[in-house]
Design goal:
The chain is α/β, with parallel strands linked by helices and about 290 residues long. The chain folds into two domains: about 150 residues, Periplasmic binding protein-like II (D-Maltodextrin-Binding Protein, domain 2), CATH 3.40.190; about 90 residues, D-Maltodextrin-Binding Protein, domain 2 (3-Layer(aba) Sandwich), CATH 3.40.190.10. The protein contains twelve helices and ten strands. The chain has a five-stranded mixed beta sheet.
Length: about 290
């Protein structure tokens, strides 16, 4: 039988092509979008990222992606087990730094970016905030001329501070200037709103809980230029995982997603709806 002798140069070319093909197959896998498994809002945000990227021609999925705390997901991003996950800037900074300083704005984003592990980055902040807010009845606010959190020392001392769960000592310290009385814990955000609306108590809720509580009546959140630390939603991603087109798509989400939007999406996920369906509905309404 006649044996064909293939020149060594051709064999080398064929081997190189095989290697390129293998690499192409490896990088063609969908981006894995992780999230906190216990937070409906984060599951919804992860699905928004996944569905939006996929619609833009960048395959992405939450299926099989890691879930867990920010610390776990940062480790997963550093080792390539997850490509992207949503997080709040304040939580990231307190996780990454033993002495966090920045309270908000560009200073906070810069401090977070510097503290991230090598090869991990954050994208543009969305319009979603989960910053703890001080809630006050409009009548009480007007009677004591309280325009912002900086003015709350004008309120009568000893008003109960109504919360859900455990806001933590740092959050409570941010409202110490209001000279509140005892902390009262109630079952849910609506119970906080009802208690505050009487004008006999103050309330503290994260912005997403406030937005998801429905009609606030005459209860309003006081604006703050300092503490508590801002909690703006950002995408955290492996720097090598996203192309310019992927970053551009994340930028589109940043310009469209609001606190009210995510609060509504989270409520649907909490009620048992598939986050991907919820995300697709929102993206269709947002014109994606």
């Amino acid at each position: 039988m006649l044996k064909l002798r293939i020149p060594a140069a051709i064999l080398a070319i064929l081997a190189a092509l095989a290697t390129l093909t293998a690499c192409g197959d490896d990088t063609a896998r969908p981006l894995l979008i992780g999230s906190s498994s216990s937070s409906p809002a984060m599951r919804a945000a992860a699905a928004v990222y996944a569905v939006s990227l996929t619609r833009a021609g960048i395959p992405a999925t939450t299926d099989g992606a890691p879930t867990g705390s920010d610390a776990q997901l940062l480790d997963d991003a550093g080792t390539g087990r997850v490509d992207l996950f949503p997080a709040f800037t304040g939580d990231l900074l307190t996780q990454l730094s033993s002495k966090p300083e920045a309270m908000g704005g560009e200073d906070l984003l810069t401090e977070v970016a510097r503290a991230l592990p090598q090869g991990v980055s954050i994208g543009d902040p969305t319009g979603v905030s989960n910053r703890p807010q001080l809630l006050i009845a409009a009548g009480l606010r007007d009677r004591h001329d309280v325009a912002t959190l900086d003015d709350c020392g004008r309120l009568p001392a000893g008003l109960p501070l109504v919360v859900t769960g455990d806001p933590g000592p740092q959050t409570l310290a941010a409202f110490a200037g209001c000279r509140p009385g005892p902390v009262e814990t109630v079952a849910d955000p609506r119970a906080v709103i009802a208690r505050v609306s009487s004008g006999q108590a103050l309330g503290v809720l994260p912005a997403l809980d406030t937005a998801g509580a429905g009609d606030l009546g005459d209860v309003q959140a006081l604006k703050s230029t300092g503490a508590p630390r801002a909690q703006d939603l950002v995408p955290v991603y492996r720097s090598a995982a996203l192309s310019k087109s992927g970053l551009k798509q994340l930028g589109r989400i940043a310009g469209e997603l609001t606190t009210g939007d995510l609060a509504k999406l989270a409520a649907r996920v909490r009620a048992g709806e598939d986050p991907r369906v919820v995300a697709a509905d929102w993206l269709s309404g947002a014109g994606d």
